[in-house]
Design goal:
439 residues, alpha/beta, Aspartate Aminotransferase, domain 1
Length: 439
């Protein structure tokens, strides 16, 4: 792709963009004076789909009108409410409908998955993650180790990028698994690393982990709605994600979870027999919403697992926190993740060209290979200590909304659903001016 570092080029690309109309379906933030901000922070909190307001109001109206009867008689009955989200999640995850569910939040789901899939035994007790993993993931992992009476220093492997680099090649993961695989019980890896924006070949990692005899799970918080996924084909054991970043479901929105069908009840005659006996194929923490729907409200003491991943549910879904996701997933199904990915590649390619013109003041730490990054570019601001933070703060004062990571990284996300080539150009223009002012 050839890019010209000009505003005119950006506008031509926007005029030719077949997805440009989707921007009008989101609430674009404005500053106190009413002026539109330059929003490039969808990797932290996505913009509100305009349709979300109507969906939430409908649930509030049904609550006011029906009270408890809304569980069965709301326009979208609340008992099977999660089913409204299944089709959109299967599209984005590349999973079967029985393998995905919207429930809880990311870290809660991660704990539920670790309770089922982290089963230390004999020499195989260790967990592999990346150095600098998202803090909540590391907290979950270390607390699970402690729950099993295991010491983090001995039983947690944190893989570090090669010296002088910021990213971890898949070859390094494979080498680690070849060396320590017999000791590793579980691999927990991100689809996209939150700090650097590096996107990983998940199928390759899953294959290497399974070759070493390890369980493999993925944190897709920065992947879902960003990168095309094929979780069923990857043969991953499980995956978890949040919905407030690229999925645009709002702050504290309902999260989601994937479990491969080989671990699920009801996917084969043998499993159906297990389910009929009221047992579970894989141990998991249980709650009443994971009980089969037909007998759930009998309040029996015996747990009868719902088929598929529905058996992992603990509690009923938060309706008001799930409604906005219906609006967003409908947009994704219409726009199609493959088309969004194609635009994402072009937006980050344009941003890369523009950042390269800044010289040594801004160092590109996201992989240059488009297959190894999503719609995020991370830039290290060089110079005197604290310069990066001053640059970031100045950008914010100018109405540029992006993200900061200590000690020196600015993260920028040109999201294809609502960001434009002109947004990308104007960001580079603002960054250029601020770098000249702050030395």
């Amino acid at each position: 792709m050839t890019y010209e570092p000009t505003l005119e080029h950006a506008r031509r690309r926007d005029e030719a963009d077949p997805l440009r109309a989707y921007r009008e379906r989101f609430a674009l933030p404005r500053d106190e004076s009413g002026k539109p901000t330059l929003f490039l922070c969808g990797h932290s909190l996505g913009l509100m789909p305009l349709a979300a307001r109507q969906l939430v109001m409908e649930e509030l109206d049904d609550w006011a009108r029906l009270a408890v009867l809304g569980h069965e008689h709301a326009r979208r009955p609340w008992i099977p409410y999660h089913e409204n989200l299944t089709a959109g999640l299967t599209h984005l995850t590349g999973a079967k409908t029985s393998e995905v569910i919207a429930m809880n939040s990311l870290t809660v789901n991660l704990h539920l998955m670790l309770a089922s899939f982290y089963r230390p035994s004999g020499k195989r007790t260790r967990i592999l993650i990346e150095t600098g993993a998202f803090s909540s993931d590391r907290h979950a992992v270390t607390s699970q180790l402690a729950w099993h009476g295991l010491d983090t220093a001995r039983h947690l492997i944190e893989l570090t990028p090669p010296a002088g680099t910021d990213t971890i090649p898949e070859e390094a993961i494979e080498a680690c698994l070849e060396q320590y695989g017999a000791e590793i019980a579980l691999v927990l890896w991100p689809g996209v690393q939150f700090r650097t924006g590096q996107a990983f070949d998940l199928e390759r990692i899953a294959r290497a982990a399974r070759r070493a005899g390890c369980v493999v799970g993925f944190d897709l918080a920065h992947s879902i709605g960003n990168m095309p996924l094929a979780l069923h084909e990857y043969d991953a054991d499980f995956a978890v994600w949040c919905s407030y970043k690229y999925l645009n479901a709002g702050p504290g929105a309902i999260g989601g979870c994937f479990v491969h069908e080989r671990h699920l009840l009801g996917e084969s005659p043998a499993n159906q027999a297990v389910a009929a006996a009221g047992a579970t194929q894989l141990p998991h923490l249980m709650g009443w919403w994971g009980h089969e729907e037909t007998t759930r409200f009998r309040m029996e003491s015996q747990f009868r697992s719902a088929p598929g991943i529905a058996g992992w549910q603990i509690s009923n879904p938060p309706i008001l926190a799930a409604a906005p996701l219906i609006a967003s997933l409908a947009i994704f199904q219409e726009a199609r993740i493959e088309r969004l990915r194609a635009k994402s590649v072009e937006l980050t390619g344009f941003l890369e060209v523009l950042i390269e013109r800044l010289g040594p003041d801004a160092r590109f730490i996201t992989p240059r290979e488009v297959s190894a990054r999503g719609c995020q570019i991370s830039v290290r601001i060089t110079g005197t200590p604290g310069r990066g933070r001053r640059v970031f703060d100045k950008l914010g004062a100018r109405g540029v909304i992006c993200d900061w990571r200590d000690p020196d990284v600015i993260r920028v996300a040109p999201v294809p659903l609502y960001n434009t080539f002109e947004d990308v150009f104007r960001f580079s223009e603002q960054l250029t001016q601020v770098l000249r002012e702050i030395v």
